[in-house]
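This entry is passed on directly below:
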Amino acid sequence: GGFVIQSPSGNVYFAGDTAYGEFLTSLKERFGGFRLALLPLGHYEPRWMMRTVHMSPDDAVKLHKFMNSKQSVGMHYGTFHGFGGHNNERVDEHENDLQAAFKKYGVSESEFPVLGFGEGRDIP
């Protein structure tokens, strides 16, 4: 599950552990844009099975653009390898797929950083 924090500085969207879906249109309509979106990037393969439960990096970058997010931060990645023998996704596969999505959607890494474990960031 996800949630939105409304503040005088702008809205923050925490997507939680979710997939790209129709419900996102209602969030955009209700809140307009977001100062910050925290979007999941990991454990998305195989797509035939995971597309209804986890975003891919492509989905996350597409959502960043769709939601008019000024800044997004990748989360929910690199935590574990495999899932019951169904997933052969490398723990760092999101990095390559994210770079491809940046190019595809014209998004810079500064708009959508992926923090290292334990790293923090101030969002203006």
Remarks:
- The mean pLDDT is 86.
- Helices lie at 23-31, 47-50, 57-66, 93-105.
